[in-house]
Amino acid sequence: MKNRREKKIGNDIEISIIIPTYNKYPQNLLTLYSIENQQFDLSKVEVIMIDDGSTDQTRTLIEHTFPFHFKLLRRGHNIGRPAARNLGIKNANGKILIFLDAEIIVQPDFLSIHHHYHNKHSHMVVTGVMTIRKLYSILYPGFSKIQLQECRGIIQALPELKAKVDVFEKKPQKFLLLNKQHIFSEEYKRLSTITPYEKFYNRVIIANYGYELKGYRIPWQMFGTGHVSVSKDAIEQAGLFLEYPGYGWDDCEMGYRLYKNGAVFTSDERLVSYHQEHPIAKTIRDESKENYFRFQETYKEVDQMIISLTFLPEPFNLHKTNQILINYHDFCKQYPGSYKSIKQCFHGMLSEIGRLRSRNEPITNLSKQKIDKNALSNEKRQLRTLCQYQRFLECFERLENL
Q: Which of 7, 71, 182, 247 is paired with 324 by a 20 to 30 Å CA distance?
């Protein structure tokens, strides 16, 4: 009887929300409250939270009662975010999978928006990473000076919280600023601020490609598991996350696989969510560089490695990078069997950027490959006379001169 009941519940699930968590209590509880506050039939929703070896009070979440189906999968030791997400996928019953970070608070229409897009298109990725804002739900002694300054600036306009900050500054200790009522009333938004990333995306991506990302050929880099959805069928076709060590790029690698499989990427201006700020580990940046190199070496394709143009000392932004890729695609389509030295050299220089960056070495002397220099020089001269591929050629020569 129990097995039949579990099967029935599984068949009724439309959406599975997969949330890895590691020592994020009580932020993860506030996230669950925001899911509880959805304008969607929560009997058709399951939340699978993977407690990835936490030593805080995350285990007590199982004592709460929620209107959605809630699973807390506990690991005795830390297995890492991609492995935790894979565990969530294996336990998911929903037709739609939403990956969410444990400290992301979502608005009441969050589920309805994701569900709407997946009903329109069976092979869609809906990303919310362009509209994630900062939220100060907890004061941490480990905040950086910049975080503390930003938090103080926000709270100056909230007299009812200023006294709490004064107490915190005299005796720094973890201090919760929000409760369930603040989530349900959406008062938490008063403790939020727009991020430089959102401003950048508005200026560089949305202004040029819209929320539909039309003409944007590197949308896979927006498969950020802080806030993104995809059909379970698409994940089953693509396979599980590669379990990179440390932080970063396993999600983009999944996005790249989905994109190569024909997934359509989109976003929506209403998909604003709120990242609860916390101290940042200093090792994250180096781990991310190493994982990018792992991702690069998995495919070694220009369509993927083109993103390394954003790592240069004077980087190309994502819009310019996309325009260079479009120009390069047109060039390769028009001349599939010609200009072999230029194509080989460009591929090699992009690859070298990733290698140098992973080792924290200066990004310079990229064109040291064994290529016939005379042939390369002749091809560049011929390419200039075409006057059609200037974006690509300018990029190529800039890399040569680093």
A: 247
**130 vs 207: CA distance, rounded Å:** 12
Q: In angstroms, rounded to a whole number, what is the distance separating the alpha carbons of residues 244 and 223?
A: 16
Q: How far apart are CA 203 and CA 108, in angstroms?
A: 27
Q: Report the C-alpha gap between 13 and 8 in whole angstroms.
A: 9
**Using CA atoms, how far apart are residues 138 and 302, in angstroms rounded to an integer?**
43
Least Cα distance to 249 among 289, 278, 297 occurs for: 289
Domains within the chain, CATH numbers bracketed? 2-127+216-268 (3.90.550.10), 300-400 (no CATH)
Which element (helix H / strand E) includes 266?
strand 264-266
Q: 263, 230 in Cβ contact below 8 A?
A: yes
The pLDDT tens digits of the residues spanning 220-254 come to 999 999 999 999 999 999 999 999 988 889 999 99
The secondary element (H helix, E strand) that includes residue 176 is strand 175-176
Please state, in angstroms and rounded to a whole number, the distance separating the CA atoms of residues 87 and 48. Answer: 9
Residue with tokens 């805080």: 56
Is residue 108 within 8 A of residue 37, CB to CB? The reply is: yes
**pLDDT score for 59:** 96
Estimate to the nearest angstrom the gap between the alpha carbon of 278 and the chain centroid. Answer: 17
Q: Which residues have a Cβ under 8 Å from the Cβ of 171 and sit 6 or more positions away?
A: none
Q: What is the pLDDT of residues 172-189, one digit of tens each?
A: 888 899 999 999 999 999
Tokens of 79: 């297995």
H-assigned helices in 240-339: 250-260, 284-299, 302-305, 318-334
Segment 334-358 shows an average pLDDT of 96
Which residue in this structure is represented by tokens 């699973």?
Answer: 71
How far is 129 from 16, CA to CA, in rounded Å?
Answer: 19
Beta strand residue intervals within 53-154, DSSP E: 69-75, 96-100, 104-106, 124-127, 132-135, 138-139
